[in-house]
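Standup notes
- DV: blocked on the single-chain target, sequence here:
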Amino acid sequence: MKKIILIIAGIVALTTMLMAFDGPGFDSREKHGRDFEHPGFGPEFESRNVEGSMFERIRDELDITKEQIKQMDELRSSNKKECIKLKSDMDILQVDKKDALKEFNFKEAKKITGKIFEIKKNLAVKRIEMQEKRWNILDADQQAKVEEMMQQRGHHKKPFGKMDKMKRK
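- DV (later): unblocked, structure below
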């Protein structure tokens, strides 16, 4: 009985040690599909972040021009700079809020919390505006193709689709 327990403990220990090593599949970028050093991506896409990954996957299907790529890169870059500034402002406010709470200054903490949520709202609006600007960079044919692709992939389903099925039965 002791031998079986020791063997099981040894197997568990060995498995744990093997899992601790950094091997293929353990890179967080690979795990989330964020490995942009993939040979399929051209040099103009090496500096991309996760925001642009959907665009990268469909750029060939949409026949994106170099000018459109340049416009989208400039848009992404300027938006990223603005978001970095807003996030750093939010981090500073978080520290200020923590300090206010340490001093039991609840009125100030509430005021700071309002500012934090205002920044969060601005970030959400900026994401929507960036999506709109990207959409406007595409021509009408490309927009139609994106809509078609999204419907095929199930991103935009008709509302009340289940009710239509129920009526037919």
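- Follow-up: The chain has seven helices and no strands.
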